[in-house]
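The data layer described in this paper is built around a simple, fixed record for each protein. Such a record has a labelled line for the sequence and another for the backbone structure tokens. For reference, a complete record is included directly beneath this paragraph.
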Amino acid sequence: MPTILVVRFSSLVDIVLTEPIVRQLRQVHPDAKIHFLTKSRFGELLSMFDGIDRIHLWESEEAGKHLMDELDQFEFDFTVDLHDNLRSQKVRSAIGVLWVHTRKEWFKRFASVRMKWLHTKPSHAIERYGGALKSLGMKLNFDSPRLNVGSEFRNRWNEVKATSSIPDDYFIIAAGAAHETKQAPGELWAQVARVIAEDIGLKALLVGAPNEKASMEDLRAKLGQDCVGVLCEESIGLSAAAMAGSRFVLSNDSGSAHLAAAVGSPTLALLGPTHPILGFEPRGRRAGFYSVKEYCSPCSLHGKRPCYREQRFCFTKMDATRIVEQIKELVSKEEVDE
């Protein structure tokens, strides 16, 4: 019965995309003890994985020294390093057991951005993580992420809905993103919300991170009567429950898109300065993306670089009606499949 340590410190997107890897480890080693090491703010996210026996939380570099002593007591048989950065390399070196690590495909991704060599086709992140299991001789199965939103989070969300007068039937706009250039303009979201209100009869719940509260309130003012509220909490589980209970989710290219797809909500991600070729589009039979073809796309790997053109055409050329039609197709697919 092997004892296995999986390591991925961040980000929300990347950790969600490790779920199929953990699930496959459990399938191959049903009696194994599977541990997962991540940053403390993602512990709640990992609690929605099936198959993890113990979660270890990295609080800080100073606390990490004590954590290494704790990990050493478990006598791991091997480590699956799905981060492969300096910190994770120190962890696997300190543990001193057999380890395997992910493939990052830096050149392919660099060529796709800087030289627009889209034919290089970097692998999806899930497939890159799966390369670590291939090193162990496992047969790869690149399934989509699946998260289990427990009753604790669902009950908390029901309480929030009741106290905030949020209706049972709503859709979500996840308008935040790590970088401002990845955030669709508020005018586009207002247009989309208006079309959905008129065509489907739903109003939007805005979901974001705590540090996005002010921008979400500004967007709420733009949406007016087409918005039912704002949810910007620390709890990833609470956001996941809100997404699982929604009719569908519209999102920027952010962790929210992957979280929504993994809890089973029909999800459409708007890709502006980034591109699906880079391997981070949301996965799942109910997930998709919408983008417009601009010669400058993708302009950066993670959407950090400021736009050098007179406007962000990758967003301003998006069509609200087409966005709504595409999400309706995903919702229709859900009804047919289920």
Q: What stands out?
A: The first helix runs from residue 12 to 16. The chain has a mean pLDDT of 90. The CA atoms of residues 102 and 131 lie 6 Å apart. The chain is about 40% helix and 15% strand.
